[in-house]
Design goal:
With about 325 residues, the chain is of the alpha/beta class. The protein has two domains: about 25-155, 3-Layer(aba) Sandwich (Rossmann fold); about 210-315. It contains nine helices and eight strands. It has helices at about 1-20, 40-55, 65, 75-80, 85-90, 145-155, 190-200, 215-250, 250-295, and strands at about 25-30, 35, 60-65, 100-110, 115-125, 130-140, 300-305, 310-315. Strands 1, 2, 3, 4, 5 and 6 form a six-stranded mixed sheet that branches. The longest helix is centred in the C-terminal third of the chain and has 42 residues, at about 250-295. It is elongated.
Length: about 325
């Protein structure tokens, strides 16, 4: 009986290293944290992340849904409790035997034209962030593919090459026949009496090109908008420096918040710059139109009668 027990124990000890050698290290994927504005888009981004991570050698992918059966709390709530701290996340998944953890968040920009994606790769054994990537993705282009490229950059993987589209040569078309030139209309001879009446007509009352209130309104709006843009740009530059300082101190979350504030301020500055530029262009156009409508400073007048013609000049100052 003792011999059999010792033989079984030896077999189990020999089989244990073989089983451990064949087991792949685990890579845990937490779903992106997102608010209600981009909740539907976040589902597609999570699916793209799953496609990139699935089959990544030499790791075995474990999704958040699969992780739910191995933890006491809900995985999403547990991750939110850690608030992005690498040590807390490492201790959270330590019992699962995971080697790496991928998590992040996504939120829209100030005007909704961009998706701000933040991805983090955590080294569980070292209990620290191994890599971190920020991305500003065009919400109207292809944010799903760009999220996959951002994840590949986080993992150090080359993006897949796209096949170049085949060029299709268009058949050359023969030039059409030239259209016959239309004959110019014949000049008509006006009434001499009507022409003399128009020549001797008095000059219109002058109107100053500086008296249009819309010109001054547009100019004032343009100057005020550009001044506001300068102030927003200065504040944005300060927030960028603050983000760099926080990143240097090892505070990526605070650096990320400062970076997003700087981006929002820069976007606001660009918007008011555009408004100010459009307002100044409008003021210049209005001034030019009023200047063209104003009569010239010296207006000659010619009057003809049966006894002869006389000329006079109208001077405005």
């Amino acid at each position: 009986m003792k011999c059999r027990f010792g033989f079984a124990l030896c077999l189990s000890l020999l089989a244990a290293p073989a089983a451990l050698a064949g087991e792949k290290p685990k890579l845990i994927q937490f779903e992106l944290r997102a608010d209600e504005r981009v909740a539907e888009t976040a589902l597609s981004l999570n699916a793209e992340i799953f496609v990139v991570l699935n089959g990544l050698d030499p790791y075995q992918l474990v999704t958040q849904a699969e992780l739910a059966g191995q933890m006491l709390m809900d995985p999403a709530e547990s991750l939110a409790f850690c608030r992005g701290a690498a040590k807390c996340i490492s201790e959270l998944v330590a019992e699962t035997g995971a080697a790496l953890v991928v998590h992040g968040d996504v939120k829209p920009s100030f005007d909704g034209s961009k998706l701000l994606v933040h991805l983090v790769l955590v080294d569980v054994a070292a209990q620290k962030n191994k890599a971190e990537k920020f991305g500003q993705l065009d919400a109207k282009a292809d944010p799903i593919r760009e999220t996959g490229d951002l994840l590949r950059a986080l993992l150090g993987i080359q993006p897949p090459r796209e096949a170049a589209p085949a060029k299709v040569s268009e058949p050359e078309t023969a030039p059409g026949p030239e259209k016959a030139a239309k004959p110019a209309p014949e000049a008509t001879q006006g009434d001499e009496a009507e022409l003399a009446r128009r020549i001797s007509a008095p000059a219109p009352e002058p109107r100053s090109c500086w008296s249009n209130p819309w010109t001054w309104t547009a100019a004032g709006l343009g100057v005020a908008s550009i001044g506001t843009g300068v102030i927003l740009g200065v504040v944005s530059r300060d927030r960028q420096r603050e983000a760099a300082n926080r990143a240097a101190l090892g505070k990526p979350l605070l650096a990320y918040e400062a970076y997003q504030d700087a981006e929002d301020l820069a976007l606001g500055a660009n918007i008011v710059y555009g408004i100010g530029g459009a307002a100044l262009v409008t003021a210049v156009v209005l001034f030019a139109i009023d200047a063209l409508d104003s009569p010239p400073a010296v207006s000659p007048q010619v009057a003809c009668s049966g006894s002869g013609c006389s000329a006079s000049f109208y001077l405005r100052f």
